[in-house]
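Practice problem: predict the structure.
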Amino acid sequence: MTTTRIHAARHHTRDRADELSPFGVLILLAGAFLSIMDFFITNVALPSIDTSLHASTSSLQLVIAGYGVAYAALLVLGGRLGDRYGRHRLFLGALVGFVLASLACGLAPDVDLLIAARIVQGATAALLVPQVLATFHHTLDGERKARALALYGATSGIAAVVGQLVGGLLVSADIAGTGWRPIFLVNVPIGLVVLVVAARIVPATKSPHPVGVDLPGTVLFAATLVALLVPLTEGHALSWPWWSWALLALAVVLGAVTYLVERRAERRGEVPLLPPSLLRLPSMSRGLLMVLAFSIGFGAFMFVFALTVQNGLHEDALHGGLAILPMALLFFAGSVLAPRLISRFGRAALAAGALVQLAGLAWLVAVLVTGWPHVGLWTMAAPLALAGAGQSMLFAGLFRSVLADVPTHLGGIGSGALITLQQSGLALGVATLGTLYISLAPHGVPHAFAAVEYVHIGIVALLALGAAALPRFTSGAVSTPVTDA
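Answer:
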Protein backbone atom coordinates (compact mmCIF):
# COMPACT_ATOMS: atom_id res chain seq x y z
CA MET A 1 0.00 0.00 0.00
CA THR A 2 2.82 2.39 0.91
CA THR A 3 4.60 1.66 -2.38
CA THR A 4 1.41 2.32 -4.29
CA ARG A 5 0.96 5.68 -2.57
CA ILE A 6 4.57 6.64 -3.29
CA HIS A 7 4.15 5.84 -6.99
CA ALA A 8 0.86 7.73 -7.04
CA ALA A 9 2.49 10.73 -5.39
CA ARG A 10 5.36 10.68 -7.89
CA HIS A 11 2.92 10.38 -10.76
CA HIS A 12 0.91 13.29 -9.38
CA THR A 13 4.07 15.40 -8.96
CA ARG A 14 5.19 14.60 -12.48
CA ASP A 15 1.80 15.52 -13.86
CA ARG A 16 1.79 18.83 -12.01
CA ALA A 17 5.29 19.63 -13.26
CA ASP A 18 4.19 18.90 -16.82
CA GLU A 19 1.00 20.98 -16.58
CA LEU A 20 0.68 23.97 -18.88
CA SER A 21 -0.24 27.15 -17.02
CA PRO A 22 -3.03 29.45 -18.29
CA PHE A 23 -0.38 31.99 -19.28
CA GLY A 24 1.48 29.23 -21.12
CA VAL A 25 -1.70 28.52 -23.08
CA LEU A 26 -1.88 32.17 -24.13
CA ILE A 27 1.79 32.22 -25.15
CA LEU A 28 1.37 29.17 -27.37
CA LEU A 29 -1.77 30.71 -28.86
CA ALA A 30 0.20 33.90 -29.59
CA GLY A 31 2.69 31.88 -31.63
CA ALA A 32 -0.12 30.19 -33.54
CA PHE A 33 -1.85 33.55 -34.02
CA LEU A 34 1.16 35.02 -35.85
CA SER A 35 1.36 32.03 -38.18
CA ILE A 36 -2.35 31.98 -39.02
CA MET A 37 -2.61 35.76 -39.37
CA ASP A 38 0.18 35.85 -41.94
CA PHE A 39 -1.88 33.78 -44.36
CA PHE A 40 -4.46 36.59 -44.51
CA ILE A 41 -2.47 39.75 -43.82
CA THR A 42 -0.99 39.92 -47.32
CA ASN A 43 -4.35 40.19 -49.13
CA VAL A 44 -4.82 43.90 -48.47
CA ALA A 45 -1.15 44.69 -49.19
CA LEU A 46 -0.98 43.32 -52.75
CA PRO A 47 -1.58 46.70 -54.49
CA SER A 48 1.19 48.29 -52.42
CA ILE A 49 3.56 45.37 -53.17
CA ASP A 50 2.73 45.71 -56.87
CA THR A 51 3.54 49.42 -56.85
CA SER A 52 6.77 48.94 -54.92
CA LEU A 53 8.21 45.84 -56.60
CA HIS A 54 6.50 46.03 -60.03
CA ALA A 55 5.25 42.45 -59.69
CA SER A 56 3.12 40.59 -62.22
CA THR A 57 -0.31 39.25 -61.33
CA SER A 58 0.96 35.66 -61.14
CA SER A 59 3.87 36.76 -58.91
CA LEU A 60 1.48 38.49 -56.54
CA GLN A 61 -0.61 35.33 -56.39
CA LEU A 62 2.54 33.36 -55.52
CA VAL A 63 3.21 35.70 -52.60
CA ILE A 64 0.06 34.22 -51.07
CA ALA A 65 0.17 30.75 -52.62
CA GLY A 66 3.82 30.14 -51.69
CA TYR A 67 3.00 30.58 -48.02
CA GLY A 68 -0.25 28.64 -48.14
CA VAL A 69 1.07 25.63 -50.07
CA ALA A 70 4.20 25.24 -47.92
CA TYR A 71 2.06 25.66 -44.81
CA ALA A 72 -0.50 23.03 -45.76
CA ALA A 73 1.98 20.53 -47.21
CA LEU A 74 4.23 20.33 -44.13
CA LEU A 75 1.74 20.53 -41.26
CA VAL A 76 1.46 16.81 -40.68
CA LEU A 77 5.24 16.41 -40.89
CA GLY A 78 5.54 19.19 -38.32
CA GLY A 79 3.31 17.27 -35.93
CA ARG A 80 5.33 14.09 -36.50
CA LEU A 81 8.65 15.82 -35.82
CA GLY A 82 7.27 17.34 -32.61
CA ASP A 83 6.21 13.90 -31.39
CA ARG A 84 9.70 12.55 -32.02
CA TYR A 85 12.08 15.38 -31.11
CA GLY A 86 10.00 17.31 -28.58
CA ARG A 87 7.20 19.82 -29.09
CA HIS A 88 8.81 22.52 -26.97
CA ARG A 89 12.10 22.31 -28.87
CA LEU A 90 10.43 22.31 -32.27
CA PHE A 91 8.10 25.19 -31.33
CA LEU A 92 11.06 27.36 -30.32
CA GLY A 93 13.16 26.41 -33.35
CA ALA A 94 10.31 26.96 -35.77
CA LEU A 95 9.51 30.31 -34.15
CA VAL A 96 13.11 31.45 -34.68
CA GLY A 97 12.82 30.44 -38.33
CA PHE A 98 9.48 32.22 -38.68
CA VAL A 99 10.88 35.45 -37.22
CA LEU A 100 13.92 35.36 -39.54
CA ALA A 101 11.73 34.60 -42.56
CA SER A 102 9.42 37.50 -41.61
CA LEU A 103 12.44 39.80 -41.44
CA ALA A 104 13.54 38.59 -44.88
CA CYS A 105 10.03 39.26 -46.24
CA GLY A 106 10.05 42.79 -44.83
CA LEU A 107 13.46 43.56 -46.34
CA ALA A 108 12.99 41.78 -49.69
CA PRO A 109 14.35 43.97 -52.54
CA ASP A 110 12.38 42.22 -55.29
CA VAL A 111 9.36 39.99 -55.68
CA ASP A 112 11.35 36.79 -56.32
CA LEU A 113 13.09 37.04 -52.95
CA LEU A 114 9.77 37.94 -51.33
CA ILE A 115 8.20 34.76 -52.74
CA ALA A 116 11.14 32.65 -51.56
CA ALA A 117 10.96 34.15 -48.07
CA ARG A 118 7.21 33.56 -47.96
CA ILE A 119 7.72 29.88 -48.78
CA VAL A 120 10.21 29.59 -45.90
CA GLN A 121 7.80 31.50 -43.67
CA GLY A 122 4.99 29.05 -44.52
CA ALA A 123 7.26 26.04 -43.92
CA THR A 124 8.32 27.27 -40.48
CA ALA A 125 4.70 28.07 -39.60
CA ALA A 126 3.82 24.47 -40.51
CA LEU A 127 6.44 23.20 -38.05
CA LEU A 128 5.24 25.59 -35.32
CA VAL A 129 1.45 25.37 -35.28
CA PRO A 130 0.97 21.59 -34.70
CA GLN A 131 3.07 21.84 -31.52
CA VAL A 132 0.42 24.10 -29.99
CA LEU A 133 -2.44 21.62 -30.24
CA ALA A 134 -0.20 18.66 -29.44
CA THR A 135 1.05 20.38 -26.27
CA PHE A 136 -2.55 21.08 -25.22
CA HIS A 137 -3.37 17.45 -25.94
CA HIS A 138 -0.49 16.19 -23.80
CA THR A 139 -0.46 18.60 -20.84
CA LEU A 140 -4.12 19.45 -20.23
CA ASP A 141 -7.15 17.44 -19.14
CA GLY A 142 -10.87 17.91 -18.69
CA GLU A 143 -12.32 21.36 -19.00
CA ARG A 144 -8.87 22.99 -19.22
CA LYS A 145 -8.18 21.07 -22.42
CA ALA A 146 -11.64 21.82 -23.79
CA ARG A 147 -11.18 25.52 -23.03
CA ALA A 148 -7.72 25.61 -24.65
CA LEU A 149 -9.03 23.91 -27.81
CA ALA A 150 -11.92 26.36 -27.94
CA LEU A 151 -9.50 29.27 -27.59
CA TYR A 152 -7.44 27.84 -30.43
CA GLY A 153 -10.58 27.81 -32.56
CA ALA A 154 -11.22 31.43 -31.61
CA THR A 155 -7.61 32.28 -32.42
CA SER A 156 -7.94 30.73 -35.88
CA GLY A 157 -11.06 32.73 -36.69
CA ILE A 158 -9.90 36.01 -35.19
CA ALA A 159 -6.45 35.78 -36.81
CA ALA A 160 -8.13 35.78 -40.22
CA VAL A 161 -10.04 38.97 -39.40
CA VAL A 162 -7.21 40.70 -37.57
CA GLY A 163 -4.86 39.85 -40.43
CA GLN A 164 -6.94 41.91 -42.82
CA LEU A 165 -7.58 44.63 -40.25
CA VAL A 166 -3.95 45.05 -39.16
CA GLY A 167 -2.74 44.72 -42.74
CA GLY A 168 -5.02 47.53 -43.85
CA LEU A 169 -4.00 49.70 -40.89
CA LEU A 170 -0.25 49.25 -41.43
CA VAL A 171 -0.42 49.75 -45.18
CA SER A 172 -2.60 52.86 -44.78
CA ALA A 173 -0.23 54.27 -42.14
CA ASP A 174 2.74 53.97 -44.55
CA ILE A 175 5.18 54.17 -41.61
CA ALA A 176 8.28 56.15 -42.64
CA GLY A 177 7.37 55.54 -46.27
CA THR A 178 7.81 51.77 -45.91
CA GLY A 179 4.43 50.90 -47.42
CA TRP A 180 3.68 47.17 -47.11
CA ARG A 181 6.87 46.10 -45.31
CA PRO A 182 5.62 46.56 -41.70
CA ILE A 183 3.03 43.80 -42.20
CA PHE A 184 5.95 41.36 -42.04
CA LEU A 185 8.35 43.29 -39.80
CA VAL A 186 5.74 43.48 -37.01
CA ASN A 187 6.25 39.74 -36.50
CA VAL A 188 9.85 40.26 -35.39
CA PRO A 189 9.38 41.97 -31.99
CA ILE A 190 6.22 40.02 -31.17
CA GLY A 191 7.86 36.74 -32.13
CA LEU A 192 10.93 37.46 -29.99
CA VAL A 193 8.76 38.15 -26.94
CA VAL A 194 6.85 34.90 -27.46
CA LEU A 195 10.16 33.06 -27.92
CA VAL A 196 11.68 34.31 -24.66
CA VAL A 197 8.57 33.66 -22.58
CA ALA A 198 7.78 30.26 -24.13
CA ALA A 199 11.34 29.09 -23.49
CA ARG A 200 10.80 29.66 -19.76
CA ILE A 201 7.23 28.58 -19.03
CA VAL A 202 6.11 26.00 -21.62
CA PRO A 203 6.84 22.40 -20.48
CA ALA A 204 8.86 20.12 -22.72
CA THR A 205 6.89 17.14 -24.02
CA LYS A 206 7.31 14.45 -26.65
CA SER A 207 5.82 11.08 -27.46
CA PRO A 208 6.90 8.27 -25.10
CA HIS A 209 7.15 6.02 -28.18
CA PRO A 210 8.63 8.21 -30.95
CA VAL A 211 8.70 6.86 -34.47
CA GLY A 212 10.85 7.68 -37.46
CA VAL A 213 9.98 10.01 -40.30
CA ASP A 214 7.94 8.33 -43.03
CA LEU A 215 9.88 9.67 -46.02
CA PRO A 216 7.76 8.07 -48.83
CA GLY A 217 4.52 9.15 -47.15
CA THR A 218 5.85 12.65 -46.48
CA VAL A 219 6.96 13.19 -50.09
CA LEU A 220 3.75 11.75 -51.58
CA PHE A 221 1.47 13.69 -49.24
CA ALA A 222 3.29 16.99 -49.87
CA ALA A 223 3.22 16.36 -53.63
CA THR A 224 -0.53 15.66 -53.49
CA LEU A 225 -1.27 18.92 -51.70
CA VAL A 226 1.02 20.93 -53.98
CA ALA A 227 -0.61 19.41 -57.07
CA LEU A 228 -4.04 20.29 -55.65
CA LEU A 229 -3.49 23.74 -54.15
CA VAL A 230 -1.16 25.34 -56.72
CA PRO A 231 -3.64 25.15 -59.64
CA LEU A 232 -6.58 26.07 -57.41
CA THR A 233 -4.70 29.15 -56.20
CA GLU A 234 -3.08 30.19 -59.50
CA GLY A 235 -5.56 28.82 -62.04
CA HIS A 236 -8.06 31.68 -62.09
CA ALA A 237 -5.39 34.41 -62.29
CA LEU A 238 -3.80 32.63 -65.28
CA SER A 239 -7.12 31.79 -67.02
CA TRP A 240 -6.80 28.08 -66.19
CA PRO A 241 -3.96 26.95 -68.50
CA TRP A 242 -3.68 23.27 -69.48
CA TRP A 243 -1.10 22.49 -66.81
CA SER A 244 -3.51 23.51 -64.06
CA TRP A 245 -5.96 20.81 -65.15
CA ALA A 246 -3.12 18.32 -65.53
CA LEU A 247 -1.98 19.02 -61.96
CA LEU A 248 -5.51 18.55 -60.61
CA ALA A 249 -5.71 15.17 -62.35
CA LEU A 250 -2.27 14.30 -60.98
CA ALA A 251 -3.43 15.23 -57.46
CA VAL A 252 -6.15 12.55 -57.65
CA VAL A 253 -3.60 9.92 -58.71
CA LEU A 254 -1.09 10.99 -56.06
CA GLY A 255 -3.79 10.93 -53.39
CA ALA A 256 -4.69 7.33 -54.25
CA VAL A 257 -1.03 6.29 -54.30
CA THR A 258 -0.44 7.98 -50.94
CA TYR A 259 -3.30 6.05 -49.36
CA LEU A 260 -2.05 2.71 -50.72
CA VAL A 261 1.54 3.36 -49.59
CA GLU A 262 0.43 4.43 -46.11
CA ARG A 263 -1.90 1.43 -45.73
CA ARG A 264 0.86 -1.01 -46.71
CA ALA A 265 3.30 0.67 -44.32
CA GLU A 266 0.85 0.29 -41.45
CA ARG A 267 0.24 -3.37 -42.30
CA ARG A 268 4.00 -3.93 -42.06
CA GLY A 269 3.87 -2.70 -38.48
CA GLU A 270 5.28 0.77 -39.26
CA VAL A 271 3.72 4.08 -38.24
CA PRO A 272 3.09 6.02 -41.46
CA LEU A 273 2.77 9.79 -41.74
CA LEU A 274 -1.04 9.52 -41.82
CA PRO A 275 -2.01 6.19 -40.24
CA PRO A 276 -5.21 4.96 -41.95
CA SER A 277 -6.30 3.41 -38.65
CA LEU A 278 -6.13 6.84 -37.02
CA LEU A 279 -8.20 8.39 -39.79
CA ARG A 280 -10.79 5.64 -39.33
CA LEU A 281 -11.52 6.67 -35.75
CA PRO A 282 -15.12 7.98 -35.73
CA SER A 283 -14.08 11.26 -34.14
CA MET A 284 -11.38 11.81 -36.79
CA SER A 285 -13.22 10.65 -39.92
CA ARG A 286 -16.47 12.47 -39.17
CA GLY A 287 -14.91 15.47 -37.46
CA LEU A 288 -12.29 16.09 -40.15
CA LEU A 289 -14.93 15.99 -42.89
CA MET A 290 -16.97 18.60 -41.00
CA VAL A 291 -13.89 20.76 -40.34
CA LEU A 292 -13.13 20.69 -44.06
CA ALA A 293 -16.68 21.73 -44.95
CA PHE A 294 -16.69 24.47 -42.29
CA SER A 295 -13.35 25.83 -43.54
CA ILE A 296 -14.49 25.88 -47.17
CA GLY A 297 -17.44 28.07 -46.19
CA PHE A 298 -15.39 30.27 -43.85
CA GLY A 299 -12.57 30.82 -46.36
CA ALA A 300 -15.02 31.70 -49.10
CA PHE A 301 -16.96 34.07 -46.84
CA MET A 302 -13.85 35.99 -45.77
CA PHE A 303 -12.78 36.37 -49.39
CA VAL A 304 -16.09 37.44 -50.95
CA PHE A 305 -17.09 39.69 -48.04
CA ALA A 306 -13.82 41.63 -48.35
CA LEU A 307 -14.36 42.04 -52.11
CA THR A 308 -17.99 43.06 -51.61
CA VAL A 309 -17.09 45.77 -49.11
CA GLN A 310 -14.03 47.10 -50.95
CA ASN A 311 -15.00 46.71 -54.62
CA GLY A 312 -18.79 46.88 -54.26
CA LEU A 313 -19.28 49.44 -51.50
CA HIS A 314 -15.97 51.20 -52.36
CA GLU A 315 -14.56 51.13 -48.85
CA ASP A 316 -10.79 51.11 -48.32
CA ALA A 317 -8.84 48.16 -46.90
CA LEU A 318 -8.95 49.49 -43.34
CA HIS A 319 -12.73 49.93 -43.33
CA GLY A 320 -13.06 46.53 -44.97
CA GLY A 321 -11.33 45.04 -41.94
CA LEU A 322 -13.38 47.12 -39.51
CA ALA A 323 -16.60 45.97 -41.19
CA ILE A 324 -16.07 42.40 -40.05
CA LEU A 325 -15.01 43.33 -36.51
CA PRO A 326 -18.46 42.49 -34.99
CA MET A 327 -18.07 38.91 -36.20
CA ALA A 328 -14.60 38.68 -34.63
CA LEU A 329 -15.76 40.01 -31.27
CA LEU A 330 -18.70 37.60 -30.98
CA PHE A 331 -16.58 34.75 -32.30
CA PHE A 332 -14.12 35.29 -29.47
CA ALA A 333 -16.79 35.76 -26.80
CA GLY A 334 -18.63 32.66 -27.95
CA SER A 335 -15.43 30.61 -27.93
CA VAL A 336 -14.84 31.48 -24.28
CA LEU A 337 -18.33 30.27 -23.34
CA ALA A 338 -18.40 27.29 -25.73
CA PRO A 339 -16.61 24.66 -23.58
CA ARG A 340 -19.09 25.00 -20.72
CA LEU A 341 -22.12 25.01 -23.03
CA ILE A 342 -20.85 22.00 -24.99
CA SER A 343 -20.17 20.05 -21.80
CA ARG A 344 -23.69 20.77 -20.59
CA PHE A 345 -25.73 20.37 -23.77
CA GLY A 346 -23.45 18.16 -25.87
CA ARG A 347 -23.98 17.86 -29.60
CA ALA A 348 -27.15 19.96 -29.35
CA ALA A 349 -24.93 22.98 -28.65
CA LEU A 350 -23.13 22.45 -31.97
CA ALA A 351 -26.39 22.12 -33.88
CA ALA A 352 -27.73 25.24 -32.18
CA GLY A 353 -24.55 27.14 -33.05
CA ALA A 354 -24.89 26.13 -36.69
CA LEU A 355 -28.52 27.35 -36.76
CA VAL A 356 -27.52 30.68 -35.21
CA GLN A 357 -24.78 31.09 -37.81
CA LEU A 358 -27.25 30.19 -40.56
CA ALA A 359 -29.68 32.85 -39.33
CA GLY A 360 -26.92 35.48 -39.27
CA LEU A 361 -25.80 34.68 -42.80
CA ALA A 362 -29.35 34.73 -44.16
CA TRP A 363 -29.95 38.09 -42.45
CA LEU A 364 -26.75 39.50 -43.93
CA VAL A 365 -27.72 38.40 -47.44
CA ALA A 366 -31.13 40.06 -47.01
CA VAL A 367 -29.50 43.32 -45.84
CA LEU A 368 -27.15 43.46 -48.81
CA VAL A 369 -29.65 42.46 -51.49
CA THR A 370 -32.50 44.73 -50.34
CA GLY A 371 -30.40 47.74 -49.33
CA TRP A 372 -27.82 47.80 -52.12
CA PRO A 373 -25.97 50.07 -52.83
CA HIS A 374 -26.88 52.13 -49.74
CA VAL A 375 -25.61 49.63 -47.20
CA GLY A 376 -23.73 51.10 -44.26
CA LEU A 377 -21.21 49.16 -42.22
CA TRP A 378 -23.37 49.53 -39.12
CA THR A 379 -26.36 47.89 -40.81
CA MET A 380 -24.28 44.74 -41.30
CA ALA A 381 -22.97 44.65 -37.72
CA ALA A 382 -25.86 42.74 -36.11
CA PRO A 383 -26.09 39.88 -38.65
CA LEU A 384 -22.29 39.56 -38.66
CA ALA A 385 -22.27 39.37 -34.85
CA LEU A 386 -24.96 36.68 -34.93
CA ALA A 387 -23.02 34.66 -37.49
CA GLY A 388 -19.82 34.99 -35.44
CA ALA A 389 -21.52 33.76 -32.27
CA GLY A 390 -22.86 30.69 -34.04
CA GLN A 391 -19.54 29.97 -35.73
CA SER A 392 -17.70 29.95 -32.43
CA MET A 393 -19.90 27.24 -30.93
CA LEU A 394 -19.68 25.06 -34.02
CA PHE A 395 -15.95 25.45 -34.48
CA ALA A 396 -15.08 24.86 -30.81
CA GLY A 397 -17.11 21.64 -30.83
CA LEU A 398 -15.52 20.39 -34.05
CA PHE A 399 -11.99 20.89 -32.72
CA ARG A 400 -12.92 19.15 -29.50
CA SER A 401 -14.48 16.24 -31.37
CA VAL A 402 -11.66 15.57 -33.84
CA LEU A 403 -9.01 15.04 -31.15
CA ALA A 404 -11.29 13.28 -28.67
CA ASP A 405 -10.19 9.69 -29.39
CA VAL A 406 -6.64 10.35 -30.61
CA PRO A 407 -4.03 8.45 -28.53
CA THR A 408 -1.69 10.77 -26.64
CA HIS A 409 1.42 9.49 -28.46
CA LEU A 410 -0.22 10.36 -31.81
CA GLY A 411 -1.34 13.80 -30.69
CA GLY A 412 1.05 15.59 -33.04
CA ILE A 413 -0.11 13.57 -36.05
CA GLY A 414 -3.77 14.16 -35.22
CA SER A 415 -3.19 17.87 -34.69
CA GLY A 416 -1.29 18.16 -37.95
CA ALA A 417 -4.05 16.39 -39.88
CA LEU A 418 -6.67 18.66 -38.30
CA ILE A 419 -4.90 21.90 -39.20
CA THR A 420 -4.03 20.59 -42.68
CA LEU A 421 -7.71 19.97 -43.43
CA GLN A 422 -8.56 23.39 -42.03
CA GLN A 423 -5.91 25.12 -44.15
CA SER A 424 -6.79 23.14 -47.28
CA GLY A 425 -10.47 23.99 -46.76
CA LEU A 426 -9.70 27.70 -46.64
CA ALA A 427 -7.84 27.44 -49.95
CA LEU A 428 -10.57 25.33 -51.54
CA GLY A 429 -13.23 27.81 -50.45
CA VAL A 430 -11.43 30.73 -52.06
CA ALA A 431 -10.63 28.74 -55.21
CA THR A 432 -14.13 27.37 -55.80
CA LEU A 433 -16.72 29.71 -54.31
CA GLY A 434 -14.38 32.68 -54.78
CA THR A 435 -14.19 31.90 -58.48
CA LEU A 436 -17.99 31.67 -58.60
CA TYR A 437 -18.22 35.14 -57.03
CA ILE A 438 -15.74 36.69 -59.46
CA SER A 439 -17.59 35.24 -62.45
CA LEU A 440 -20.95 36.59 -61.23
CA ALA A 441 -19.81 39.97 -59.85
CA PRO A 442 -19.89 41.79 -63.23
CA HIS A 443 -23.64 41.05 -63.36
CA GLY A 444 -24.26 42.46 -59.87
CA VAL A 445 -22.14 42.38 -56.73
CA PRO A 446 -24.97 41.77 -54.20
CA HIS A 447 -26.36 38.87 -56.23
CA ALA A 448 -22.87 37.37 -56.63
CA PHE A 449 -22.43 37.58 -52.86
CA ALA A 450 -25.88 36.05 -52.34
CA ALA A 451 -25.10 33.13 -54.69
CA VAL A 452 -21.97 32.24 -52.76
CA GLU A 453 -23.69 32.60 -49.41
CA TYR A 454 -26.57 30.37 -50.46
CA VAL A 455 -23.98 27.62 -50.93
CA HIS A 456 -22.40 28.59 -47.60
CA ILE A 457 -25.79 28.44 -45.87
CA GLY A 458 -26.31 24.98 -47.35
CA ILE A 459 -22.97 23.86 -45.90
CA VAL A 460 -23.91 25.21 -42.46
CA ALA A 461 -27.28 23.44 -42.63
CA LEU A 462 -25.52 20.14 -43.35
CA LEU A 463 -23.19 20.77 -40.41
CA ALA A 464 -26.20 21.29 -38.14
CA LEU A 465 -27.53 17.89 -39.21
CA GLY A 466 -24.09 16.29 -39.09
CA ALA A 467 -23.56 17.24 -35.44
CA ALA A 468 -25.66 14.21 -34.50
CA ALA A 469 -23.01 11.92 -36.04
CA LEU A 470 -20.21 13.21 -33.79
CA PRO A 471 -19.17 11.39 -30.59
CA ARG A 472 -21.22 12.24 -27.52
CA PHE A 473 -19.81 15.05 -25.41
CA THR A 474 -19.49 14.54 -21.68
CA SER A 475 -17.57 16.55 -19.13
CA GLY A 476 -15.00 13.80 -18.71
CA ALA A 477 -14.91 11.28 -21.52
CA VAL A 478 -14.46 13.58 -24.44
CA SER A 479 -11.52 15.38 -22.97
CA THR A 480 -9.57 12.27 -21.94
CA PRO A 481 -7.80 10.66 -24.88
CA VAL A 482 -6.96 6.99 -25.17
CA THR A 483 -3.39 6.52 -23.95
CA ASP A 484 -0.72 4.22 -25.27
CA ALA A 485 -0.26 2.26 -22.07
